[in-house]
# Entry
Amino acid sequence: MLSNLRICAVSHQTISSVHINNICCYKVRASLKRLKPHVPLGRNYSSLPGLIGNDIKSLHSIINPPIAKIRNIGIMAHIDAGKTTTTERILYYSGYTRSLGDVDDGDTVTDFMAQERERGITIQSAAVTFDWKGYRVNLIDTPGHVDFTLEVERCLRVLDGAVAIFDASAGVEAQTLTVWRQADKHNIPRICFLNKMDKTGASFKYAVESIREKLKAKPLLLQLPIGEAKTFKGVVDVVTKEKLLWNSNSNDGKDFERKPLLEMSDPELLKETTEARNALIEQVADMDDEFADLVLEEFSENFDLLPAEKLQTAIHRVTVAQTAVPVLCGSALKNKGIQPLLDAVTVYLPSPEERNYEFLQWYKDDLCALAFKVLHDKQRGPLVFMRIYSGTIKPQLAIHNVNGNCTERISRLLLPFADQHVEIPSLTAGNIALTVGLKHTATGDTIVSSKSSALAAARRAEREGEKKHRQNNEAERVLLAGVEIPEPVFFCTIEPPSVSKQPDLEHALKCLQREDPSLKVRLDPDSGQTVLCGMGELHIEIIHDRIKREYGLETYLGPLQVAYRETILNSVRATDTLDRTLGDKRHLVTVEVEARPTETSSVTPVIEYAESISEGLLKVSKEAIESGIHSACLQGPLLGSPVQDVAITVYSLTIHPGTSTTMISACVSRCVQKALKKADKQVLEPLMNLEVTVARDYLSPVLADLAQRRGNIQEIQTRQDNKVVIGFVPLADIMGYSTVLRTLTSGSATFALELSTYQAMNSQDQNTLLNRRSGLT
# Structure
């Protein structure tokens, strides 16, 4: 093996090592003259990327495997279900790391940020590439915390399959529901892995039942556990009727034995497995007609004769069709059940060619890729993660950004092998790449080979749309494929240590915003302060910490404030005239508008025009009018918060010839503000979904505390020995709740929050808030 490490001969390539930003980077350079032996630094591989035993593959087969052999998967779950630990074990067993990292020790591959290692949580999604039994797997470990839900959203956007991990003692939890809904939205086939089968209170039956009831999914039991909690020692493969037992003396879980179940040695287990296999065959036959025909024709009398390969193929089809989810179990921390999970990923989850992307027909073989994540590296600059849907990417390739309408050049192309980055000569469709040199590309941008390629694709999409008698906006949406960014719920002011550091702070925030689109930065027009808007307390705290560590700025944060909204309760009309003379030019606009509440919820104002306004006038001034209305609704009359659920109707508009569009926009904006001030106003506050998991003994004090926080309890469920309190609570009353909950329950309870909706405040609470904001209380 040492000779393999020393001889880095991969198709006449030299491998040198560069230490960049705490990540060891392998750089592969073509060298036709000689090969330099070199022992890699940092984390050691048990074998080099692409080297299996003494088999040296060509670089092309390592970098560009057949598309049918590629799996792009994500690991998703509730916080603390074991995503990062599972990823760490996967990398170890696939031969890409020499030692088993631990979240508690802060030495895992995918949690490389200082903040992640200190807190023991995943903050940024991390991509790793590895090989398993001839398959190339691009794996993304995603965060479980609700503050970083955008990370999950933008990763699922580019994946072909996902592994949903569950804590076997808790089953489906709050954030599990959120990530499951996100996967549903992007039509992602899934496998379920019931982790922590060794944990006290673990229950295979309960976890499977919670998947069936809460996720409304159809679980296919491909494995049964041998023992639970402290007695857990292995699993039974239901498909092949074999038992997999891990050696109790083995420290790393690499040694396990696979034995067929026999009547002599395991009569009870064999009976249970046979019943489970027969139930599985019937379940799959109900969902797959091809498999049902096969079973009825050849194996209806004896299911035992049905070959495992036929059953696996049918399970693959129903998984890809998302009619059912395979369920496996194990314990990542105790190194049990990970190798069968990897086998299941390659057997049951789809390859890129099995996913039906409609827009691929418009691009033919031209390049089409989606930038789904940006990282900033101090030495290399922005690193852009891309999913390639068609075509090929090469270094020094000029690419066209459809969203930004600009052309850029890729300087280098990398593959993330565990925590090493390998420079590569090209990458084909179906892969996930890391590109260097793109200065303007952001999350959600569509990348094509040239502007003409994008136009040609748009024309093909338009023709296709005409054939199917539908609007072209669907085609346009796919061409400009993006990621939905949630609205922030918290904000606070941020100030640099001195005025001279303001440009440095602006640069840091610009870089962080490009990395994390859910972070919004705006300037307060009254005070001139910079305001940070984020998804939660932890989100803001992490951003503050990163500014300090990565950019060396000791910034000061103001108190956290809740992002309120405003609306109106009745219809009002207002008229305004703007008459200005600038130089020798007279600008004169008179406008009459009506503001009224809408019946349906709408974040942006609904804009309508009266029939009396001529088409010609609208043609030249519509953009300016709508710009004025939108700017007026950004700041409401009560708190200066955005106004929602309003409809604005323009009843009359008179414009003097030669009046600039800026003046039209300013007049409309002033008129709308006047109307909003005249109306009866209402403050809307963010209402959060709350789920508290608490021991029975502490239930009463937790409920009493929630009652004081204006909480509305919906139901109290039983989960093993714990109680789960589900309800709604206003965000303003839940700030700092984690400390209070720890105190009330001696640190035993956990909770999860998620934005539900915005609700109207009652008049007493609204007056208290307004008095506090104006300094009267």
Residues 567-679 form a domain with the Ribosomal Protein S5; domain 2 fold (CATH 3.30.230.10). The chain has five domains: 67-354, 359-466, 490-555, 567-679, 684-774. The radius of gyration is 29 Å.
